[in-house]
Design goal:
This is HAT C-terminal dimerisation domain-containing protein. The chain is an all-alpha fold. The chain is built from six helices and no strands. Helix content is about 55%, strand content about 0%.
Length: about 150
């Protein structure tokens, strides 16, 4: 039997019967996914995506992600000393590497830094972690605050 070049060229055309579940996917599910996609695109614009991507350099700090730290600090000019923060970043990266903490999440890593009392050793990074951890709250719109 020769395979048709197009699907609709087949001589044995079997009508497609959609079940209720299939119709729901076609009519409702796809529309909901499209709505979610548009909401995410409007909430996270092209200007904020580099900021959100560069946050990963803090989880945990690694010497090879220093460029991402520079990109991240460019959003917060004046909030801390960026030059000293690079030194703090390298020291914290080495400290975390030696303690074998691994990738535990930004919030838990910050809690670890505070609990161990080493946040005072890294004042600029401490400020950056606080700014980053409040970012999801501050990016909420007015309507969502109620």
């Amino acid at each position: 039997m020769k395979v048709p070049t197009r699907l609709d060229d087949s001589k044995h055309h079997v009508p497609i019967v959609l079940t209720g579940k299939d119709r729901m996917k076609e009519k409702f599910f796809n529309d909901v996914i499209e709505l979610i996609k548009k909401a995410l695109q409007s909430r996270f614009s092209h200007e904020t995506m580099p900021l959100l991507k560069s946050i990963e350099c803090l989880n945990p700090p690694k010497p090879e992600t220093i460029q991402d730290l520079r990109a991240l600090s460019s959003y917060y000019i004046g909030d801390f000393d960026a030059d000293f923060m690079e030194y703090e970043y390298k020291l914290l990266a080495k400290s975390i590497e030696l303690s074998n903490i691994g990738k535990i999440g930004i919030h838990k890593l910050y809690l670890y830094i505070v609990k161990e009392g080493i946040a005072k050793l890294y004042p600029n990074l401490n400020i950056l972690y606080m700014l980053i951890l409040t970012l999801p709250v501050t990016s909420s719109t007015f309507e969502r605050s109620f």
